[in-house]
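[step 3/7] inverse_fold.run input=structure_tokens len=387
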């Protein structure tokens, strides 16, 4: 995917996936650093890992029988997450059917949060061979009649969740575990919050006060207020079985941890930690980063490549972000405040007082800019790629 070649005193950098390249003087090149790349699982290993909980817990089919369940919701991710849902969903559906649930009473719910609706072609990709055999619908975070209020978390977050999901006898989540800029890791409880919660619930969980907490950072779950609020919400909703997937850099399934919502998620996170940490001999002055697929779908998702390391930047740091961003910025709430307020104090005041959910990425970027100085400048440009 990424490669470098030294030639005539220069280092030539090439990104085959994005079709981007540039060169810099060799004396300025510190190195190309990448995370570890675990090997892919074999097909038979994938099935076994989905069906049998990682710690010897109850199989999904046994949970269905014990609860005498007749309906089930399977909560899956949208196109911005790149989860190979179609490779594991058939095993989940078989377990539900083997437990006694009729296939017509199984529904897949796309955990959009407040993202755009999944299109039909995307739904076909999510379900694969199951498309047309099971029902599938998009979550709606904005329609009160499609939500149910369950009370407040201990952090005063009002929990409103998808009514179809909550009223199902069995709830299953399928998600991908990777580093997340403020929740520590994606996957697990995030299928519920933000996945199938109301906009109001998501906004309060993602409030700036929680985001600036020093424990709200990539790779950390301990005392992380955003993670803990998400987990409490998911428990209030009720999740019977969770399938947590870890991918390698070749977009292959490298690990699956199934079973209890929290335990399986933590096991996946611990597995990922073995490969995602990169140790640098010193802190570079310039970072060149690319989000890669599927985050390169738009700028709103793509800036996560910057946010992932924002807490280690300082006043000397320069960050260069590049990506295809086929759908453009895709969020006025994220971009417009930067256009309107060049002064960081004014920007912060506006965001804190007028917070909307897709202003969340402004917070860490603003923290990085503050390290430069109060009146620092920032520059961004979107160039539509020509085929």
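[step 3/7] decode complete -> sequence:
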């Amino acid at each position: 995917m990424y490669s470098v070649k030294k030639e005539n005193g220069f280092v030539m950098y090439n990104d085959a996936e994005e079709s981007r390249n540039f060169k810099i003087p060799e004396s300025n090149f510190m190195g190309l650093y990448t995370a570890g790349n675990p090997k892919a699982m074999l097909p038979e290993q994938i099935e076994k890992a989905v069906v049998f909980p990682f710690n010897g817990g109850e199989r999904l089919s046994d949970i269905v029988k014990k609860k005498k369940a007749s309906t089930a919701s399977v909560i899956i991710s949208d196109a911005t997450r790149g989860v190979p849902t179609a490779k594991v969903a058939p095993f989940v559906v078989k377990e539900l059917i083997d437990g006694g649930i009729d296939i017509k009473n199984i529904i897949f719910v796309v955990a959009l949060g407040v993202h755009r609706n999944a299109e039909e072609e995307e739904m076909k990709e999510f379900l694969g061979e199951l498309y047309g055999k099971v029902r599938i619908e998009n979550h709606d975070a904005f329609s009160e009649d499609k939500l149910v209020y369950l009370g407040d978390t201990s952090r005063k977050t009002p929990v409103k969740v998808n009514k179809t999901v909550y009223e199902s006898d069995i709830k299953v989540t399928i998600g991908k575990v990777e580093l997340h800029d403020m929740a520590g890791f994606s996957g697990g409880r995030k299928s519920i919050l933000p996945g199938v919660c109301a906009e109001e619930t998501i906004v309060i969980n993602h409030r700036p006060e929680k985001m600036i907490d020093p424990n709200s950072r990539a790779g950390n779950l301990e005392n992380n207020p955003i993670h803990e609020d998400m987990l409490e919400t998911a428990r209030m909703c009720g999740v019977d079985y969770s399938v947590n997937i870890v991918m390698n850099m070749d977009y292959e399934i490298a690990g699956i941890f199934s079973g209890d919502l929290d335990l399986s998620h933590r096991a996946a996170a611990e597995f990922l930690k073995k490969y995602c940490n990169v140790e640098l001999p010193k802190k570079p002055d310039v970072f060149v980063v690319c989000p890669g697929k599927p985050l390169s779908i738009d700028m709103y998702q793509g800036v996560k490549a910057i946010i992932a390391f924002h807490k280690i930047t300082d006043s000397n740091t320069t960050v260069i972000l590049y990506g295809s961003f086929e759908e453009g910025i895709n969020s006025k709430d994220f971009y417009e405040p930067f256009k309107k307020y060049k002064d960081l104090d004014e920007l912060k005041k506006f965001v804190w007082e007028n917070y909307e959910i897709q202003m969340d990425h402004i917070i860490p970027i603003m923290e990085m800019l503050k390290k430069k100085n109060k009146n620092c400048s920032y520059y961004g440009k979107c160039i539509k790629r020509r085929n």
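[step 4/7] annotate
The longest strand covers residues 170-176.
The mean pLDDT is 91.
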